[in-house]
Structures are given as structure tokens and as C-alpha cells.
TrEMBL record:
Species lineage: Bacteria, Bacillati, Actinomycetota, Actinomycetes, Glycomycetales
PANTHER family per UniProt: ALPHA-D-RIBOSE 1-METHYLPHOSPHONATE 5-TRIPHOSPHATE DIPHOSPHATASE
GO MF annotation terms: hydrolase activity, acting on carbon-nitrogen (but not peptide) bonds
InterPro entries to which the protein is assigned, alphabetical: Amidohydro-rel (IPR006680), Metal-dep_hydrolase_composite (IPR011059), Metal_Hydrolase (IPR032466), Metallo-dep_Hydrolase (IPR051781), OTAase-like (IPR057744)
The keyword Cell cycle is assigned to this record: no
Protein's recorded name: Imidazolonepropionase-like amidohydrolase
Length: 409
């Protein structure tokens, strides 16, 4: 059961304003934040004196793949779903212990792993899942080598995607994902690094196909997330109603204008390209995949700076594969080179919550929000390294009012 806790002498991180407010008291009751202020009292609560430490909302990563325990994605679909689920459970627990209390999985996670976390069968971040990502034949999640004709797109196959073509085909594929309770539909708008037969600079799906998928998602009061690198691919998606663009490393000023016009979201995932360049081969990436990685590696930081300066909605994403997922927090460091700390933190809290449609429930310490809380030793606004070294700085992880790591002293 969630505990009734009164945190006192807390420096509360106001993620919306980007300021640290010292001398605050925060009351947690029934899994929610009941009150915040300098004079909050509660006789029935356990009092925890934070001694001036920072109390902040749990982090949100908007682009993870919990099934991707290897970077060699072409073989993932042939593995036992049970084995992949166990590996995913281990990774989810590690994500939670890094401070991520919510994640969005835009390819791979399904209703089963979502329900297992929601029911408390395994510890992990709250999951917003998209089911299988949709790809055209020869697109980014068509993992067949050139000589193979058949594919197994069974729902329980632990691969990350589903191949579909034509307006009728993509409508049915989108409806199948939404039928399982998916929170969004992920589509491939361009080529990608880890796929075997497509080019980074390709565009994928016809405009009619994209519009059909968007129409199905909107009919279900959901949205479409689109994988895209080039400005051409990004702009096609935004013009057709895609709500969030994943990666976006090669965007330009025309893309920025469309993001602002449509109030769309960009989810950069810079850390994955850096780690793939360093250790991708160790975790299964081919030389051809590594060559494609070089095409987007350096451009991502420039795209992030351009989007930030223009006021585009930016969300935190990592997109790491296999053993590289241990670097999930390094995205803070990379972004901090060109973006102020307060804005980097917003991308992993306030803005991410808005993309998920949960702006009143997560990402801020306000009455009525879920009690997803971190206690950190230090000021992350002054030094983002406070967030990137959890062993040294992360003292407590609370999710829904329950302590998941650390202890209430």
C-alpha cells in the first residue's frame, strides 16, 4: 500500500518554472501529492526530513524499447517471447532505479508487459506502449535480409514491428495495435540505422497511407508517432498530422516551422548514436548499420539546438539497444552542451507529460499529481551530473506513493 508521508525541509524542483524552491513540505497520501507548501502539516503522516535535498518529479523517457535486449534486431523476432519478457523485466527495474518512473515504448512493448507493471507483478516505470511499429515493405522494421521473402508478423512475436502496405492494409494494422490498448501508433516515415535494406534518406509510406493511419489513431483518441531523420520525411509526417517525430537528426528550418504550426513534439535520441558508434558492434550492429549511424551522429546536436532555439516542444528520449541501455541518463549530458539545464529537465518531465496527455498527473510536484518522486543530493539545475550518477546522488525513488529504491529515513 502507498504510504502517507510528509517530506519536510525539501528543496522542491518546480519543473515548469525551472527553479528550486527551498524550505518546502510535500504531503503524499493515497499515492498522490496531497499538498505542497511551507506550512503543510499532517498528524497521521510519517515525517521525513530531507535536510535540504532536492525533491523532484520522476523522470520520463519518451523513447525506449524494453524488448530490445540486443542491437541485432533482425533476430529478435525469432526469440522466445518468455525469454524476451524476462529480459525486459530486468531492464525495466534498472530503468526505475535510474529515476525513470514513466516511459513510452514506441515499438515492441505490448499490453502484457504494460499490465505486468501496472499490476505490480514486476517493478518498472509506468509504460505507455505503442505495440508493434508499422513499416512498409522494405521499411525500417522490415528486418528480412534481401534474400528472404516470408515474414512472421504474429502478435506474440517479440519483434518490434509489423509490415503493412496500402491504405486498407495500414488501416487494419493500426486498428490491430489500437485494439490491444496501445496509447499511440508508431510508424516509420524514413529509413533507419538498425534495419538491413533501407536508406537513411528514403521516405516511407505514401501520403495516403500516412493520413489513413493518423485518421485511425485520431478516431481512437490516440496519436501517431513517426520515426524520421530527414527534413523531407519529417515534413511529410507533420503535414499529414503526425503528433511526435522521433529522432529528427536532419531537420531544417522548414521542419521547425511545421513543428510550431502544428504544436507537434520532437523526441531527439542523441545518446543512442553516440553509444552505437562506440560499442554498437559489440552488441550486434553490422558494419553496414554502423556506416548508416555515422550519417546522423553529428547532425543530431545541431538539430536539437535549432529546434530548442525556435521553441519546439522537446521530449527526452534514449532509444538505446542491448547493453547500451545502461547509458540512458547520458542524454542529459549530451543535451546540456547546447540546452540550459532547466530546459533539458523540462523535456524529461513537463513536456514529456504533455505529449503523453498526462500533464496534470506526472512531471510536476503539484496537488493531485501522482506521487512519482525522486530525492537527489544536489541541484540538477546547477549541474546535470546530479541526475547522471544515481549511485552518488539518487537517494530515493517513489512511484505512486510506494518506495521503489532507497529508504524513507
Amino acid at each position: 500500500m502507498p504510504e502517507t508521508v510528509l517530506f519536510v525541509n525539501a528543496a522542491v524542483l518546480d519543473t515548469a518554472a525551472g527553479v528550486l524552491v527551498p524550505g518546502q513540505r510535500v504531503l503524499v497520501r493515497d499515492g498522490e501529492i496531497a499538498a505542497v507548501g511551507a506550512d503543510v502539516e499532517a498528524a497521521d503522516a510519517k515525517t521525513v526530513d530531507l535536510g535540504g535535498k532536492t525533491l523532484m518529479p520522476g523522470l520520463i523517457d519518451c523513447h525506449v524499447h524494453v524488448n530490445a535486449h540486443t542491437a541485432e534486431l533482425s533476430g529478435l523476432g525469432d526469440e522466445s517471447p518468455a525469454y524476451v519478457a524476462v529480459k525486459a523485466a530486468i531492464e525495466l527495474r534498472e530503468m526505475l532505479h535510474r529515476g525513470f518512473t514513466t516511459v513510452r515504448d514506441p515499438g515492441g512493448a505490448d499490453f502484457g508487459i504494460h499490465d505486468a507493471v501496472a499490476e505490480g507483478l514486476i517493478d518498472g516505470p509506468r509504460i505507455f506502449f505503442g505495440g508493434k511499429a508499422l513499416s512498409q515493405t522494405g521499411g525500417h522494421v522490415d528486418m528480412r535480409p534481401r534474400g528472404r521473402s516470408v515474414s512472421d508478423d504474429h502478435q506474440c512475436c517479440p519483434g518490434l514491428g509489423l509490415v503493412c502496405d496500402g491504405v486498407d492494409g495500414v488501416r487494419k494494422a493500426a486498428r490491430e495495435q489500437l485494439r490491444t490498448g496501445a496509447h499511440h501508433v508508431k510508424i516509420m516515415l524514413s529509413g533507419g540505422v538498425a534495419s538491413p535494406t533501407d536508406r537513411i534518406d528514403s521516405t516511407q509510406f505514401s501520403l495516403d497511407e500516412i493520413r489513413a493511419i493518423v485518421e485511425e489513431a485520431q478516431a481512437a483518441n490516440r496519436y501517431v508517432a513517426g520515426h524520421a531523420y530527414t527534413a523531407r520525411a519529417i515534413n511529410r509526417g507533420l503535414e499529414a498530422g503526425v503528433r511526435s517525430i522521433e529522432h529528427g537528426n536532419l531537420l531544417d528550418e522548414s521542419s521547425v516551422e511545421l513543428f510550431l504550426e502544428h504544436d507537434a513534439f520532437l523526441v531527439p535520441t542523441l545518446v543512442t548514436y553516440r553509444r552505437m558508434s562506440i560499442e554498437g558492434a559489440e552488441y550486434g550492429l553490422s558494419q553496414a548499420n554502423l556506416a548508416k549511424n555515422e550519417l546522423v551522429l553529428d547532425a543530431g546536436l545541431r538539430a536539437l539546438e535549432l529546434a530548442h532555439n525556435a521553441g519546439v516542444n522537446l521530449c527526452y528520449g534514449s532509444d538505446l539497444l542491448g547493453g547500451m541501455r545502461r547509458h540512458q541518463l547520458d542524454e542529459f549530458t549530451i543535451r546540456g552542451a547546447v540546452v540550459p539545464a532547466a530546459d533539458v529537465i523540462r523535456s524529461a518531465t513537463v513536456t514529456a507529460a504533455r505529449l503523453l496527455g498526462e500533464e496534470d498527473r506526472i512531471g510536476r510536484i503539484v496537488p493531485g499529481a501522482r506521487a512519482d518522486l525522486l530525492v537527489v543530493d544536489g541541484d540538477p539545475l546547477a549541474d546535470l551530473a546530479v541526475l547522471t550518477d544515481p549511485e552518488a546522488h539518487l537517494k530515493l525513488v517513489m512511484q505512486g506513493g510506494k518506495v521503489k529504491a532507497g529508504a524513507l529515513d
